[in-house]
């Protein structure tokens, strides 16, 4: 009798596992179609139309496309100047992404840029700094965001260092002029006798 119960449990577990995998695969297929449509709208600069399309993709929460939808939804809201909605979507993106991943970096930069537009530079600097620590494609963009926000807050030293860090990765950038101006601003005046 004990062997029969164990075999039954294994069978039920296998059946449940198969059902779960089947559900996830169906969600991935449906989400893939919706995501393709949403991305086409986004790439055509039809951000207002892309918003409900990405929201639909998010309803497939077990799909691998849901995280991507969070990111594009936040950027669609940014493009349509719906900053509160962009902030909410960007925060969800950060939560939904894996640490140290490119998606996390994109989410953090999007969150920082949203906060920057909302004139919330202190948390934006924190998010840009966290994004900088992820070795991926948007390190320079995060560094530049941090520099802009620090400058907006009047933190010239942090801004100057961030701009210098940006220039290390982007030599020849016209921001070298800004660095020179900030350095001149922070230099102590010489005493003329």
How would you describe the overall organization of this protein?
Helix content is 78%, strand content 0%. It has 193 residues and is mainly alpha-helical. The radius of gyration is 23 Å and the shape is elongated.
Structural class: mainly alpha
* Helix-strand string: HHHHHHHHH
What's the number of extended β-strand segments? Answer: 0
The number of helical runs is 9
What general outline do the C-alpha atoms trace? elongated
Residue ranges: pLDDT <50 for 5 or more in a row?
none
The average pLDDT is 89
- What percent of residues adopt helix (DSSP H or I)? over 70%
Largest sheet: none
**Which percent range describes the beta-strand content?**
under 5%
Cα-atom radius of gyration: 23 Å
N- and C-termini, Cα separation? 104 Å
SSE topology:
Blueprint: H1 2-43, H2 47-58, H3 65-79, H4 83-96, H5 102-117, H6 121-132, H7 139-152, H8 156-169, H9 175-186
Helix pairs in contact: 1-2, 1-3, 2-3, 3-4, 3-5, 4-5, 5-6, 5-7, 6-7, 7-8, 8-9
Please outline what is shown here:
The chain is mainly alpha-helical and 193 residues long. It has helices at 2-43, 47-58, 65-79, 83-96, 102-117, 121-132, 139-152, 156-169, 175-186.
